[in-house]
Amino acid sequence: MPKIKKEEKKKKPEEGRFQLLRGFRDVLPPEEKFFLLLEKKVSNLAKDYGFGRIRLPILEEAVLFARSVGKDTDIVEKEMFTFVDQNETTVTLRPEATASIARAYIEHGMLNWPQPVKLFYIEPMFRREKPQSGRYRQFYQFGFEFLGTAEPVIDAQLISIANKIFSELNLRESVSIEVNSLGCKNCREEYKQELLNFLKPKKKLLCEDCKKRMQKNPLRVLDCKEPSCQAVLADAPVLLDWLCDECKDHFMKVLEFLDQLEIIYNLNPRLIRGLDYYNKTVFEIWPTEKTGSQTALAGGGRYDSLIETLGGRATPAIGFSGGVERIISLLKQKGIEPRETGQAKVYLAQIGVQAKTKAIKLLEKFHNEGIIVAENLSKDNLKAQLEQANRLKVRYTLILGQKEVLDGTILIREMEGGVQEIVDYEKAVQEIKKKLSKT
Ligand code: HAM
Asked: Is the CB of 272 under 6 A from ligand 1?
């Protein structure tokens, strides 16, 4: 067991209670229906479009992220939960999944599978960011990745999948799809130089972060939210004007496909993305009503060199991920409630020890038949149980009292009309099945 700092050892018992770590949260049952809704939507779409689910480990070697996400990015520089394990291996709680996807593609020889390989995931990620609304240190992402294809039609198909998710969640009107091209290494390098030439004489007007960005990655200056930097950038050269013929042709084709699909997007020449592995098409999904700086609901793009950078054979790829908590927050903001599924239509009330024994057995029978029955076996009071049945809006309540136990019967109460009938205990499941199938 690793050593616990003296201060930590002392603090907890004195305070008398433990609390969540900063930036972490518990998802309590009332919120679960939102997570289920998103999981279902993503899994169904993935199935329809032929994506296979991949479950990735939470821990990876730290160097995997430095090499893929980029050592000068905020994620790698400041936000990773990294530690040395007992074998002296430096490991990281993954801040994102694309690096692991690329590692898995190489490790499992997926280049021998039919291409493109289509993978999806829904997994927690970890970033030690400054916590604020919509920005957590553990958050869930779903993602779709195409590996082994450079075709522009795939870029459009991926964007159309993202578009579909938001449409099917009834959020399409509340979001915009921002699209840009980052070009390839060659055209981006030329543009970087041009951008630097433009920024140098105005350096003193930029925020402190952007002054540093100019040295490390001048492109990141483009998506700075500081008004002073925004003002400087108003006449900045635009990357799209610097694309080489191949990159321009690729991007034009992507946009044509999007037009054919009637997907509305916003061509955003300032969209840069915060991870280094991207080239060519990039996109993000933003809420139309901005509520802070951390607003992207989803983001992704091409990463044609990543697999090669990690030691695999050159394999073009593209993908995107969505932030589950941020999308849920938008659903709540828009008053969109997931429909409850699997709600009980039947309640089983019981009074007395013998009734409890029979009730437990009966619940098993209902369970085996796939009928959900609500109950509260810890209660003895009929009134309290009927109140709960009312609250749950079940259609039928089964009542097992002492009399019914002795007679080998059970009472079925129809909640709406209050009509009650006595049936044979052994036939309870059959009777309820019959009644539920009628309406
Ligand atoms: P990303 O833009 O860093 O991309 O993250 C994708 C989404 O995850 C964001 O748009 C946001 O909704 C959510 N997200 C990010 N950080 C947080 C946070 N601290 N709290 C809550 N939500 C957050 C990637 O991670 C790439 N791997 C996407 C990708 C897949 N590119 C290609 N394939």
From this structure: no
Minimal CA–CA distance to 413: which of 424, 421, 402, 405? 421
Measured in Å, residue 141 CA sits from the centre of ligand 1 at: 7
Question: Which residue's alpha carbon is nearest to atom 31 within ligand 1?
Answer: 300
State how far Cα 417 lies from the chain centre: 44
CB of 143 sitting under 6 A from ligand 1: yes
Q: Which amino acid is at 404?
A: E
| pLDDT tens-digit map of 267-313 | 999 999 999 999 999 999 999 987 655 589 999 999 999 999 999 99
Specify the amino acid at residue 287.
P
CA of 97 to the centre of ligand 1 (A): 9
pLDDT beyond 60 at 8: no
Q: What's CA 238's distance to the chain center, in Å?
A: 32
Q: Indicate whether residue 299 lines ligand 1 (CB < 6 A).
A: yes
| Token representation of residue 421 | 């009938």
Q: What does the mean pLDDT of the chain come to? A: 93
Exposure string for 48-69, b = 16+ CB within 10 A, e = fewer: ebebeebeeeeebebebbbbbb
pLDDT at position 342: 76
Ordered by where they begin, the domains of the chain are 19-184+244-333 (3.30.930.10), 346-434 (3.40.50.800)
pLDDT at site 12: 55
Mutate to test the pocket of ligand 1, among 24, 69, 96 (most ligand atoms within 8 A of CB): 96
For residue 125, how far is its CA from the centre of ligand 1 (angstroms)? 9
pLDDT at 217: 87
Q: Is the C-beta atom of 279 inside 6 A of ligand 1? A: no
Task: Describe the chain by its helix, strand, coil percentages, rounded to 5.
Answer: 45, 20, 35
